[in-house]
């Protein structure tokens, strides 16, 4: 699990690159009084620590008094952010605009109204070029303030023009705010529950999508209005397993950025997220060629300066690139090959654990467990599934449930029938509580109960003259028709039960079965 330290200053210090640390020290020495240089001592002490421990910090730095520590930490935190602002302002359009706005206000306070208005006009152009509507509104309000308090004679009909511009900006902000709210609600629903489980879930999602904002924003031409509308349809399609809808709007999402190169830099994380969704759509639709092409686009983009010079972008691209590569192994059936990625992937996860959210960790644990299970290593799969099961976190009910189900099947594979007998009851109760029981799970649980009652492991079943292959064949025939049922098919997204059953019937490894299917898919 991630090492989530509660000390914000410690995390900030640990996030700094070498050049940022050097710049911070130069900044402090240049801008602080000699009495303030004690914060450098605190900075160095925190930088050397592997984990934050206040008692150790004070014992090793006797000049730092406990009663001073709180104020020193607050001052150091502010100074680091101030130094970073100087270094990073050229990388962020919003920081550049904010600085220019500050300059315009300084000119206004000096009584230099005309100069301030000229600068505001330049800022206005910059905000429009980069779709920064919130800053545009601030520019317009300052312009209105100057025009209403001073006779500048800047142009005729100035009052009407400013009023019209403010009304337009307000209307755009309203559309952006409402559509982004809806997008966030849909994404939040997915983070909590995963894919739609039943008719009740679908009704709740349909109700969300009846929001009038989607009709209002449909004719809007602004970048963010389009982005959040595409996101709403994207999340809706994905949650409902309407993969064509998911693909269509993921592609629109990415195409929007391809048509606006400057927005790739302004909203890099959103572009990376769009590529991730497009890769997921190709995976779900089994578009292998397009999947490879889009992974390559993400991989190439992750090596650009836009990503390499920004830790947030770097982390996001790492997460989505590895998820994409794991999914590619799932599709190809190359599970054993996929296992070779795990050591380097885990090393990187450990390196960035301070910045990873619980959701991403859950996803990685589950996908790694699936890699091991598909490669015929159920015991190793159980190790990662236990991390999910023993982690008390209130999100992704779907992963919590299917981790337990895969955990149960892995023990079945190992012949641990006493464990299976116990786990089948607790897993059934858990999935029932989480409203994750569908016909697929009911049929599977019934099969496992029958296996236990008839003697458990395959060898004992054979000894009792029970045809285990027939039992697996009957189960396969019962499950096959459910693949095409949208309310039942979600189970097959988390567990490739069909391939597992076919492997048992044919006496082959799961990955061999999937590889044969992939050959047919790619031929």
How would you portray this structure in words?
By secondary structure, this protein is mainly alpha-helical. Among the domains are: 8-88, no CATH class; 390-523, no CATH class. It is built from 30 helices and no strands. It has helices at 8-15, 18-31, 38-48, 54-60, 66-88, 93-109, 113-129, 133-149, 158-193, 199-209, 213-217, 223-239, 243-258, 261-266, 268-284, 288-301, 305-308, 311-332, 335-339, 342-351, 358-374, 378-389, 397-413, 417-433, 439-453, 458-463, 468-479, 486-494, 497-506, 510-522. Helix 8 runs antiparallel to helix 9 (158-193), helix 12 runs antiparallel to helix 13 (243-258) and helix 15 (268-284) packs antiparallel against helix 16. The longest helix has 36 residues, at 158-193. The two termini are 41 Å apart.
What is the count of helical runs? 30
Rg, alpha carbons: 28 Å
Order of helices and strands: HHHHHHHHHHHHHHHHHHHHHHHHHHHHHH
Our estimate of the beta-strand percent is under 5%
The main β sheet shows up as:
none
Unreliable stretches, pLDDT < 50, 5 or more residues?
A: 1-5, 456-466
Helical proportion? over 70%
Structural class: mainly alpha
């Amino acid at each position: 699990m991630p090492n989530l330290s509660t000390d914000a200053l410690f995390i900030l210090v640990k996030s700094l690159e070498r050049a940022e640390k050097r710049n911070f020290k130069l900044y402090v020495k240049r801008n602080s009084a000699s009495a303030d240089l004690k914060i450098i001592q605190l900075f160095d002490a925190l930088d050397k620590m592997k984990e934050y421990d206040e008692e150790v910090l004070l014992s090793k730095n006797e000049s730092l008094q406990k009663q001073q520590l709180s104020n020193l930490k607050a001052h150091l935190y502010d100074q680091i952010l101030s130094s970073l602002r100087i270094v990073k302002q050229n990388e962020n359009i919003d920081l550049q605009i904010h600085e220019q706005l500050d300059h315009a206000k300084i000119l206004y306070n000096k009584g230099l109204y005309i100069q301030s208005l000229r600068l505001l006009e330049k800022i206005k152009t910059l905000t429009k070029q980069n779709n920064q509507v919130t800053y545009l509104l601030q520019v317009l309000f300052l312009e209105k303030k100057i025009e209403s308090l001073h006779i500048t004679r800047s142009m005729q009909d100035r009052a009407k023009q400013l009023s019209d511009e403010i009304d337009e900006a307000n209307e755009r902000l309203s559309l952006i705010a409402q559509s982004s709210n809806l997008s966030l609600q849909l994404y939040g629903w997915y983070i909590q529950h995963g894919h739609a489980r039943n008719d009740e879930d679908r009704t709740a999602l349909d109700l969300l999508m009846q929001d009038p904002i989607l009709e209002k924003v449909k004719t809007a031409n602004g970048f963010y209005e389009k982005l959040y509308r595409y996101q709403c349809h994207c999340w809706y399609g994905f949650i409902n397993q309407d993969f064509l809808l998911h693909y269509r709007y993921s592609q629109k999402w990415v195409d929007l950025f391809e048509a606006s190169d400057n927005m790739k830099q302004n909203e890099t994380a959103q572009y990376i997220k769009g590529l991730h969704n497009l890769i997921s759509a190709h995976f779900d639709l089994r578009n292998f060629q397009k999947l490879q092409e889009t992974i390559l686009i993400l991989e190439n983009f992750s090596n650009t300066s836009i990503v390499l010079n920004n830790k947030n972008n770097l982390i996001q691209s790492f997460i989505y690139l590895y998820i994409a590569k794991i999914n590619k192994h799932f599709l190809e059936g190359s599970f054993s090959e996929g296992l070779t990625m795990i050591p380097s992937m885990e090393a990187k996860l450990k390196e960035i654990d301070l910045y990873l959210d619980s959701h991403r960790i859950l996803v990685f644990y589950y996908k790694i467990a699936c890699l091991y299970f598909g490669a015929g290593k159920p015991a190793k799969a159980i190790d990662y599934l236990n991390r999910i099961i023993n982690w008390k976190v209130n999100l992704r009910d779907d992963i919590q449930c299917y981790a337990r189900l895969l955990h149960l099947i892995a023990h079945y594979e190992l012949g641990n029938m006493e464990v299976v007998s116990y786990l089948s009851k607790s897993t059934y109760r858990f999935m029932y509580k989480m409203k994750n029981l569908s016909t697929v799970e009911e049929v599977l649980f019934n099969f496992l109960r029958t296996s236990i009652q008839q003697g458990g492991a395959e060898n004992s079943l054979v000894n009792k003259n029970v045809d285990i292959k027939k039992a697996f064949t009957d189960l396969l025939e019962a499950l096959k028709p459910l693949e095409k049922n949208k309310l039942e098919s979600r189970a097959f997204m988390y567990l490739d039960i069909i391939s597992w059953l076919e492997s048992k019937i044919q006496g082959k490894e799961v990955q061999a079965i999937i590889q044969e299917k992939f050959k047919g898919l790619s031929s």
